[in-house]
Amino acid sequence: MIYALAAIGALTIAVLMWKAFGPQIASPPARRAPVAPDDDPEFLRKIAEEQRKNKRPTDEDGGLK
Q1: What's the pTM?
Q2: Alpha carbon 1 to chain centroid distance?
Q3: What is the CA 10 to chain-centroid distance, rounded?
Q4: Which value, to the nearest 10 degrees, does the dihedral of the CA atoms of residues 57, 60, 61, 64 take?
Q5: Whether the Cβ atoms of residue 15 and residue 8 lie closer than 8 Å to each other
Q6: Which among 4, 21, 33, 43 counts the fewest CB atoms within 10 Å?
Q7: DSSP labels for 21-63?
Q8: How far, in Å, are 22, 52, 65 from residue 12 at the CA level?
């Protein structure tokens, strides 16, 4: 009986050592989740620049009338 418990203990230790120090499984590269356009800072910056370019001044001299 003691030999059976020793065998189970040795097998358990062997499995734990294999998990800890055995060959490492390469994990797949992390994939970025798709970003919606309204959450993408680069997209929002481009839109803001386009709006500034297309903005027409309502008053030529910039002062109040």
Answers
A1: 0.38
A2: 52
A3: 41
A4: -70
A5: no
A6: 33
A7: HSPPPPPPPPPPPP--GGG-HHHHHHHHHHHHHHPPPSSSS-S
A8: 14, 68, 88
Integer Cα distance of 33 and 49 in angstroms: 26
Residues whose CB falls within 8 Å of the CB of residue 37, separated by 6 or more in sequence, listed in order: 43
Q: Are 65 and 59 in contact (CB under 8 A)?
A: yes
Tokens of 62: 């910039």
